[in-house]
Amino acid sequence: MATALSFASSLLAELRQRDARAQALTFRARGKSAVIGIDDEGEFVPLLKLDAGSAAFNVMSLFVHHHGRWQPTLKRGIPKDLAETLATSLSHLWTIHADLADFDPDDL
Q: In Å, how far are 4, 6, 37, 50, 92 from 95, measured between CA atoms?
């Protein structure tokens, strides 16, 4: 099985191919999990977590940070499949944050 670091890296590479806004996302891997988030003025803001990996199938489960806790999305898969889901049906979990990261009030 890929490490959490390589899994998250692959997922973000796939997601960035599907949606340029994913350039704003970054990740931190620790042990068997990785947290995907955004840097907000130097502070890491967690949005998604990859955890509960399976060595036999190279899959991980996707969780969303909601009200200070990790909630299951009930999505599990390989990086390519999770990226597709994050680019489509679950895009709302991260695109608002990515758009805000690129927001410049001086452009108003």
A: 22, 22, 11, 18, 6
**Quick one: CA dihedral 82, 87, 90, 91, positive or negative?**
positive
CA distance 58 to 11: 12
Tens of pLDDT, residue by residue over 49-86, are 999 999 778 899 999 999 999 999 999 999 999 999 99
In one-letter notation, the amino acid at residue 73 is T
Q: Which tokens sit at 104? A: 């410049």
Dihedral angle, C-alpha 26, 31, 32, 35, nearest 10 °: -20
- Give the residue extent of every domain in the chain: 4-102
Of the pLDDT bands very low, low, confident and very high (cuts 50, 70, 90), residue 9 is: very high
Q: 43-54 and 69-77: which strand pairing?
A: unpaired
Residues listed for the chain? 108
Given a contact cutoff of 8 angstroms between Cβ atoms, the answer to whether 94 and 19 are in contact is no
